[in-house]
Amino acid sequence: MSRRTKGRVTRPTGVELYNRLEKEVHDRLVSFLDGKGPILEIGCGDCRHADRLARSLKTRVVGIDISKEKFPVGRGRHCAECIQTDAESVSVVLNEKFAGAVARFVVHELKHPKLVLREVFKVLKGRALVVLADPVKGSTAEQLHNEKYYTVGQMTGFLRWAGFQDVECELLGEGNLAFVLGRKR
Ligand SMILES: C[S@@+](CC[C@H](N)C(=O)[O-])C[C@H]1O[C@@H](n2cnc3c(N)ncnc32)[C@H](O)[C@@H]1O
Questions:
Q1: Ligand 1 near 2 CB (within 6 A)
Q2: What is the pTM assigned to this prediction?
């Protein structure tokens, strides 16, 4: 991920690294979730990523967030449905079953990540895939945003605790971001 400036090889800044990672994460999500639907996005924020996923996957995407502060106003050109709810009670609020779930840059913000993932497990169909994409402990993002992140061991542990199997993790962006997958059997 180094770049060459006037003959010198420099490392990307944190912001450059995460801008590049956004595209890499999106492309990977699309390749893993292609052909699956509907998809649940946990902690969808302003819903822009949920919309982008809906367009790329050509499927229904439901985004949930504990706060609707950043939700788009009016339907406009938005394709994803965004619902304000605490992910800790998603199985009570939604009575739809999903073929995949995504939490992008969210796990570190959850008060009870294990409980959220257990709830997500309940609203997934059999064979569904869950994907967590989050900066890892000690990553560049820790200094950039002054936040605390989990280790890969903790994130894979949360998924196993919640009931997911075939849990695996790939490190992206020079080891800064964990892309963790699990499957509901
Ligand atoms: C860093 S933002 C990421 C937003 C979006 N996923 C993205 O990649 O642009 C984390 C989001 O998680 C949401 N969040 C935190 N705890 C939550 C919970 N218990 N249930 C639902 N959303 C939650 C926050 O409100 C925030 O919008």
A1: no
A2: 0.93
